[in-house]
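Readers of this paper often ask what the protein records in our data store actually look like. The remainder of this section carries one protein's record, kept here as part of the documentation.

:::
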Amino acid sequence: MKLNLGACDRREDGFLSVDIVPPADVIADLTKAWPWPDSSVAEVIAHDVFEHLPDKRHTMNELWRVLAPGAIATVTVPTLPGVGVCCDPTHVSLWSAGDFEYYEKGNYARERFRNSEYYAVKADFRIVDAKPSHYVNRFGETVTKWRFVLECLK
């Protein structure tokens, strides 16, 4: 199974579209437990959706939980500098490149807090690739996004 999270009407061949609103194939509220069994997903695309989810730990732990060992997730998020991160009134979390280090196996930031009850990070990923992109919107403002490719380690 391959999932295109936050897709709504943006289809990708071979992927189930998932969103909180129709016309997605699967209607799911990703702020709650994700409706797929452990290790059941072969690949995830999540373009411009994680910033709409309020709890980063929940999001990353659920992503890791549903992905099969070795599965790939491609995550794109708007970030600073750039207006895209703050303009949309439904953006409830801010992501930066550094955020993903907290979920990368072996990274100091992740390992330091892994067993902390407060941090509760279960996710083990390897950052395969990370690239920023920039474009100018129709008002002349720069929008910055990061695209991460993560491999699920279990």
Summary: The domain at 2-152 is CATH 3.40.50.150 (Rossmann fold). The helical segments are 56-66, 84-87, 108-113.
